[in-house]
Predict the structure.
Amino acid sequence: MGRKFKSRLEVAGIYLVVLVMFAVILYPLLWAAGISLNTGTSLFSAKMIPDNASLDNYRWLFTNPRSDYKIWYRNTVIVALITSVCAVSLVALVGYVISRFRFAGRKYGIYTFLLLQMFPVIMGMVAIYLLFNLVHLLDTFAGLIILYVIGGLPMNVFLVKGYMDTIPRELDESATMDGAGHLRVFFRILLPLSRPILAVVALFTFMAPFMDFLTPRIILRSQEKYTLALGLYNFVNDAFSNNYTIFAAGAILIALPIAVIFIFLQKFLISGLADGATKG
Amino acid sequence: MQPEYADDKRPAAHSPRAAMLLSLIPGLGQLYNRRYIKGLLMLFFSICLAIALPVPLANGIAGLITLGSDPEIDDSRTLMVEGLLSLIVIVLLAGFYVFNLRDARRDAMNISRGVRIASVRQAFQDSWQHGFPYFIIIPTFIMLVMIVIFPLIFMISLAFTDYSLYNSPPAHLLHWVGFENFKELFTEPLWAKSLLAVLSWTVVWTLLATTLQIALGLFLAVMVNDSRVRFKKLIRTVFILPWAVPSFMTILVLSAMFNDTFGALNVDILSHFGVSIPWLTDPTWARVAIILVQIWLGFPYVFTLFTGVLQSISREWYEAADVDGGTRWNKFRHITFPHLMYATAPLLIMQYAYNFNNFNIIYLFNKGGPPVPGQNSGATDILISWVYSLTFSENSNYKMAAVISIIMGIVVAGFALYQFRRTRSFREEGMY
């Protein structure tokens, strides 16, 4: 009897901890949702449970002529799509070459990749600004996309190379015996087999422009070229308490789809990441 | 007497040394090796480059050395960029040149050993076969050099100039000042004090925030994994939320909630207990707040990682422990914990590296503030956010930002060294 009671008490304790964690996790998220439903724009008068909730802020984002939200959304989707397509194609090809070929400088190339993926982009921002200024890439999407694709290259190549190393070499060797060329082996064998990790890379590179405010802040100048993260950041940054409820509304519209995708794919993402990381 | 012998061996007289010497002008050695297409192409390109490049390259290097002479015409920054790019081009060309010499020698050696020279068609196919990795890697590498390596070199160079707000192009010229800036950083009281404060907080922050988020993730993963707990799927989904929602937004939301005067934490919760904590204006409380926020953001990753490993630990281990009458604590200490650590240690170490460079949370939460008198860094500034604010704030001080970047780079390189050692490449050369 005493033992059973003790066991029940333990389980109750675990549930209590879980409930406390639920409160700590959900409180900020629900608070943001509540704030976005307030009618005023300032944080000072906003309440988590508004007196008269309305979707005014959401409507403002999409209909008000002063709002650039739709343009930012379009910009971000354009940048994200192109970045994702370019990154996946390049990363797959480079990963294939590093995984399957022996060439001069390969070992040092791998070390360089490893080292480079550790350095944060911020360290080189002054130079990137000056360089892009020199070649007229400032305030263009092309500049932003190049930075995202190349900047993320070392890390992504590592994920893909690690994954491709686990695909048996016999497969492509037998194809080569049958007379398949390099590109054929790549397109027919390695590309289809490494789809899971390429999907991870595609998703990560697609989501990055939605979350990154720093790179666009350095590259982009004109407001009609802003991406969502930068535009939203400026809502908060320009005058802290003035546009807060609108920021909350805009943020929720981005956070919701991203969180849903993330939760649906979590198993997939995590196993892909862990594989790439431990087998590198 | 063996005169006929010598005649027979004439092809063997094809000399690798001659091929290499001829290749001092790229292409000639290849022609000597009777690789006509390759030779002509290389000759053509080297003549083009020899005509087009020397003047701009020389100008670039000269500009890099002098950094300009007349502020009306010269912008030292542009000169530096061009100079460093020239330097990179020279290094790359030197690489190709060495490659050309070795290529001529190798082909010549093959010929002297009697390997049949390939027909033009065959040579074409060969170069596709053997050249394929280079066709992919070289362009990628060049882009990487421009976007990632060049900026780092530029930043390092800036540390040796006098580039600051008061001496900034285009109105002024920059000058090379040697280790002047390093001396200033370590000896000038304002800088030395700031550096010490930032360095020590960076260490405390990295260790404390990361360790606590790992500890919480471990605690929760073990608890939820208990076989008696139900609704596991729901619990795990909610626990993953802070990771799933873009941190850029949650940090801004949490920063508003921690606001001293109208933040929800002070107004809605702590006011019931009659306390109001200066979360964003008091240095110590700001540090506490920022660590709490990072734990909130960071534990789900660790939690998920551990949950995955826990499910893969074989039951037999625990059953064996039961037979031996092991207590729960013993089972945790001798089975669960070692398993978790063995499987995830590299990823956990990388969490420390990640927090060391975690610019987003520091900057978005409080911009490194609150300010501290007698220091030009804020109370929660870590190295990377300090570099950022030195670079992009109103009184930019690029040279010092560059010096601090170098210090940061050394630490980052330390983490990278750890990465090197753990990859199999170091131990099992065959894998690569």
